[in-house]
Write a structure and sequence with these properties.
- There is one protein chain.
- Helix content is 18%, strand content 32%.
- The longest helix has 13 residues, at 159-171.
- The chain has eight helices and 21 strands.
- Strands 14, 15, 16, 17, 18, 19, 20 and 21 form an eight-stranded mixed β-sheet that branches. Strands 4, 5, 8, 9, 11, 12 and 13 form a seven-stranded mixed β-sheet that branches.
- By secondary structure, it is an alpha/beta fold.
- Helix 1 packs parallel to helix 3 (207-215).
Length: 372
Amino acid sequence: MVFYIRFLKVPKIFPLTVGADFTVKTTITLTSDLGDEFLAQDIGLFAYLDCNGVIDCSPLRPEWKAGMRALPFEFCVNKKSMAGPLRLCISGHRPTAADQLSTTRMPELVSAWSGFFDVSGSREAPRKIERRFDLNISGCAELSIWEETGESIARHIWDASLGLVAHLRVLLQPQSDPATSSPLRQLLHTQRSIPLRVLELGAGCGIAGLALAQMRSDSHVMLTDLPEAMDILSLNIAGARLASGSHVEQLPLDWDAELPRTVWERRFELVLVSDCTYNADSLPALVRTLEAVVWEEREVEEKGTVVLVAMKVRHESEEVFFELMAGAGFTLVEQWSVSLPDRSRGALGRSLDVVEIYAFGRLGRDGESEKP
């Protein structure tokens, strides 16, 4: 399990205090992706103020203690040394680098960056939080993803999406013998006359599709979710530093509604589904949507569409997803596991969490799986 630093109260500037020009106050928590568990161990944090890209060299060291659910703290700041827009960074490491994200180095605690606030302008940061990830790929920019700070978990990063991004990073690494590569790796590495067309369902913040478009050139990605996710998707698309020839767009898509013509008419070679199987009641609608996207008789340059599903199984009811997929003519082509770090679980002798990743093809009319 990965834990996330979240703002319960975003940074805000308060009136002058003795010995300082102003005070910045905030309240954070260290919680799981669903917010149902709190970090159950002591940990020292680093809290920095960033002014116009200049990091305060004297970080505050708030201490999170096992059993906590909230941690308030404050900065006393000299106005002369912090003239301009401010941001607050809170991390479990120093210096303030992006969190490493790979299958061998998953973050145990995901750092947090606030939005801008200012002594002379908006004294309270926006109710959003930025995550920064170093994908450690030559020529690939740092991945920046904004989340909302509200109670809705739908527009937060979840563990399975981190596992999916880390695995895509592995698949995109060059291999000495392409002939022995997995079908999905071959799809991602094949030289093409047209861009790779990718659809993400239930995109949330859009981390999986955006990461792919930053790591792989010539990728055209459509991020879809309910209308209430469009604002956060728009923000993340606007700030993305895409690979050469890549493009990302967004579109509202409700699995219970008719498939938009824009999606229905397009040929997608890859469909991404991450952290969308936790609610068993929504699974029939999800599989119906996949059926509509991946036509049985559709051919994409004589190769079928791959549906890549990442999930961290949270309860037994999610098993119905595989039954529904089989009933819709999808067959499992490949499977991988990405381990998640969690020292507290290991110390207590509890099994560690994993993200399971499944690649599905769809059975054609002749009964053979349409694989890449």
